[in-house]
Design brief:
- The protein is α+β, with helices and mostly antiparallel strands.
- 50% of the residues lie in helices and 10% in strands.
- The chain contains 19 helices and nine strands.
- A hairpin with a 7-residue loop joins strand 3 and strand 4.
- The termini are far apart.
- 54% of the residues are buried.
Length: 457
């Protein structure tokens, strides 16, 4: 099993990897499909199903599909250009993708929210259709956004193409037990094994530059969030808090009055800064998802700014270790809130961050696995119940607490020798089973939990 670090950490746009980035990717893939057809397409239409319908407006899924059909992509997203294009599409009722346009498309009628049963392959399904001059459907593809910005067609999902199809890597592992056995056999760290696997597919310069960009985008997102006030969009009137908390923390420095637990406020505000940016539709990195995008960067920022002796040169090892753990969770369970609730999003992110931090603090592979297990175990059963379908409440604060748990898990693991009762593999399988048993009300549908008990209008 191989999943690249750049699959786990993708530059994209908020507020959701599965509900925003994924549908935009699907729309882009559909354009490629249409370009390959031997006949002319005159219009396009989309229908959103399952969780994409129930929380699609709050997660900006309709906007993502429209922009994707216009030819925009998440990794090069420009907010000003997007707003201008949305206004043009609404006025002219067409999209203008390269090599195809103009194609008839009215945002008011050509994006359907289907609130019936979900499509059979996954809770996040969408169907994109190509129309002829008379408005009849002449081409149709079903896509599934399976979490973290990953997208598969119905055919690809049925054929098992959600697993790696590339050449063999030097250190393949599909479970934490395999990973630890391989580390013992080779004497390599988890980061070194992951690096070798990456280098079997891409050049060293591409790997180094890619990791540098991932952290730069994460860190810039933190700084942007720490510098921005205001109210988040969507109607809940949630005020940004990261800047105010950060300003207060800066003002308290040197006063010798801060309690030791104030360090938790630093971690929380770093994470909240990211997720406030995500909620506002800004540029973020999936880590492993948008809804959990704050945990890993907040933990790295904590390491760099608050741990004596920390250096930026260790950030690549952090990211590689975290990606190895995230890949195991995705392969053996899920990173999708629509499949397994928030245990699969913030829980996975906390496990990844705990592993990464433990690694750069000198942890052994056994201690790193223990750190990931502790963090994941104590998110088991966490529901995904966004109020009004927005990635704001409880998501923003939840990332702060996820970062705190990640640091605590790494610290506890470093106090031991790596031996422990519950393995990471057991925690991951338990998360998968819990997700299967969890009511759909608590899996990113906004039909249960806080989403129905908090006034949202």
């Amino acid at each position: 099993m191989f999943l690249s670090v750049f699959d786990m950490f993708k530059v994209g746009v908020g507020p959701s990897s599965s509900h925003t980035i994924g549908p935009m990717v699907a729309a882009g893939r559909f354009l490629e499909h249409l370009r390959a057809l031997p006949f002319q397409i005159s219009g396009v239409r989309a229908s959103l199903h399952g969780s994409l319908a129930f929380t699609g407006i709050g997660h900006a899924t309709d906007r993502a599909v429209i922009l994707g059909l216009s030819g925009m992509s998440a990794d090069t997203y420009d907010a000003d250009k997007a707003e201008a294009e949305l206004a043009r599409i609404a006025a002219e009722r067409n999209v203008l993708p390269d090599g195809l346009g103009p194609l008839r498309f009215d945002p008011k009628t050509d994006v359907e929210f289907d609130y019936g049963p979900a499509l059979p392959g996954h809770a996040n399904g969408l169907i994109l259709r190509g129309l002829d001059a008379q408005g009849d459907v002449v081409s149709e593809v079903t896509y599934y956004s399976i979490g973290g910005g990953f997208v598969l067609t119905a055919q690809e999902l049925a054929e098992g193409q959600d697993t790696d199809q590339g050449p063999a890597v030097p250190h393949p592992f599909s479970s934490a037990d395999d990973m630890l056995a391989m580390a013992r056999k080779t004497g390599l760290s988890i980061a070194d094994m992951k690096r070798a696997n990456e280098l079997s597919r891409i050049s060293r310069s591409d790997l180094d530059q890619g990791l540098t960009r991932i952290w730069e985008v994460m860190n810039t997102c933190i700084d942007r969030g720490l510098a921005t006030n205001g109210e988040l969009p969507g109607g809940l009137k949630v005020k940004r808090r990261a800047k105010g908390i950060h300003d207060a923390l800066l003002g308290e420095r040197g006063m010798n009055q801060s309690a030791p637990h104030t360090i938790n406020d630093w971690m929380s505000t770093y994470a909240m800064a990211v997720n406030e940016e995500n909620a506002a539709g800004g540029q973020v990195v999936t880590a492993p998802t948008n809804g959990a995008a704050g945990v890993v960067p907040a933990t790295i920022r904590y390491f760099l700014d608050h741990v004596p002796g920390a250096t930026p040169s260790k950030v690549p090892d952090f990211l590689l270790t975290a990606a190895a753990i995230g890949g195991l969770i995705k392969f053996n369970a899920s990173i999708s809130g629509a499949e397994c609730g928030c245990q699969a999003e913030v829980g996975s992110a906390a496990a990844m961050a705990a592993a990464g931090l433990c690694a750069v603090l000198g942890g052994t592979p056994e201690q790193i696995e223990n750190a990931a297990e502790i963090a994941l175990e104590h998110h088991l059963g966490m529901t995904c119940d966004p109020v009004k379908g927005l990635v704001q409440v409880p998501c923003i604060e939840r990332n702060g607490l996820g970062a705190i748990k990640a640091v605590s898990a790494a610290s506890l693991a470093l106090r031991g020798d790596g031996t422990h009762l519950v393995s990471l593999d057991v925690a991951v399988e338990t998360m998968r089973q819990t997700g299967e048993d969890m009511s759909n009300k608590y899996k990113e549908t906004a039909l249960g939990g806080l989403a129905v008990n908090v006034p949202n209008c």
